[in-house]
């Protein structure tokens, strides 16, 4: 499938600071891709280059088949900044109507658009009275004008409560199902783990990891933790059979490499009857993220 966004060997420096170094990635129609990275990793710079707000120093970039920032690309790309600012004296409906006029869209679509982001009930209230979550929805409604093929969202859920976050991702799921490509930056790892298809990790301007969570998990090859609960009288026997095990918080803990997982499980299975319960705890996205970021010296 032709990608909506294709970036090859992108570089960008500000004076002596290399904000992006040799970054290559693509986002396909219907894909939800999360862009992760520490503060200063280069996420905003990458977004600004995609939007055509700043020019890259080198590399190639295709946005919906066009150069970033040209009329064709702009017609197909939507952007939601982290802190979208609106005129506080306008109502939600007035603000969206105004943006639709600017884009030569039929303004009768303004109310349905606000309805789509769950704001129809507040359409005639001033934005100054909206909560942060409601303002973020106005931002999303603004981004959806003109059925964009690519959505670039800068930390779209920061400051939203858990229910608003869930609603927001449900909306994104619907857009992706309709074929929109979505690139969103976030510091909320658990949330992107559950709600996106692929992860990109930027560190010091370089793309240090890209793939699905299982792919990154395999590549990182981090140790697996196991927690064993012994039947009352058998704890000592289990500890003796598993020399690497330690006792912590009323349970027996064991850590092993990915390649030793099956052997270790076989050892535990051999203790059947003595083991009351077993939990296998894979490395979390936080562990994986730290692994790739640290590997890059961040
Ligand atoms: N206009 C600029 N002039 C000089 N340096 C800049 C400029 N814009 C970004 N930088 C530098 O480029 C690097 C990448 O910054 P960028 O804003 O892209 O990071 P980020 O990943 O978006 O960070 P955050 O999570 O804090 O938003 C940083 O070292 C930053 O200081």
Automatic annotation (TrEMBL):
Question: What InterPro entries does the record point to?
Answer: AAA+_ATPase, ABC_transporter-like_ATP-bd, ABC_transporter-like_CS, ABC_Transporter_VariousFunc, P-loop_NTPase
Which Pfam family, an example, fits this chain?
A: ABC_tran
Which key words tag this protein in UniProt?
A: ATP-binding, Hydrolase, Nucleotide-binding, Transport
Which GO MF term does the entry hold, naming one? ATP binding
Q: What is its EC number?
A: 3.6.3.-
- Do you know which PROSITE patterns this protein is assigned to? ABC_TRANSPORTER_1, ABC_TRANSPORTER_2
Q: Is Ion transport one of the keywords UniProt gives this record?
A: no
Instruction: Give the ABC transporter domain ranges.
Output: 5-229
Chain segments annotated as transmembrane: none
Recorded hits in SUPFAM superfamilies, A to Z, give: P-loop containing nucleoside triphosphate hydrolases (SSF52540)
* SMART domains for the chain: AAA
EC top class, as a word: hydrolase
Recorded hits in PANTHER family, A to Z, give: ABC TRANSPORTER ATP-BINDING PROTEIN ALBC-RELATED
**What is this protein identified as?**
Putative ABC transporter ATP-binding protein YxlF
Q: Which species is the source of this protein?
A: Thalassovita gelatinovora (Thalassobius gelatinovorus)
Which gene carries the instructions for this protein? yxlF
